[in-house]
Specification:
With 149 residues, this protein is mainly alpha-helical. The chain contains five helices and two strands. The chain has one domain.
Amino acid sequence: MSETIEILLPKPAAEKLFGLRTQPGNRHFVENLEKQLATLGVSGARFAMAPPVLLTVAGGAYDLIVKELRVQIAVIGGRLDHLAEGETDDAETAVFVSALTAHRLQLERREEAVISRAAADGIVVERRLDADARAVLEIVELDGFSEVA
């Protein structure tokens, strides 16, 4: 038995998700995005478009910038995994985890901005399979899981 969860996205985000669905080879990526959205939707989250990420890419160095962002994202992910293994519940750790999580999302938003800019220039940069749906679809939560942006 499958449960249906209705999630209302802003029109630009819904159009981007539809566009990603229609691109060959994106099936697993889109499934991951939809699972993330379903998790957020269960909490009753509502979404709006995020403020645009402004950046300049000199000389078309898209791959180089994305690689650097991905290294930073991986480092933060490793720290978060390490903190989760420690299972500490103190307030200081909770604040640190929250700050790291917000910073990772900010980096993922920058990564998506570079990928989108590259696409506008006709260059394909593959997205990470585990990319945050909020970054890819350029959305923020209005309620439910709150976000620090």
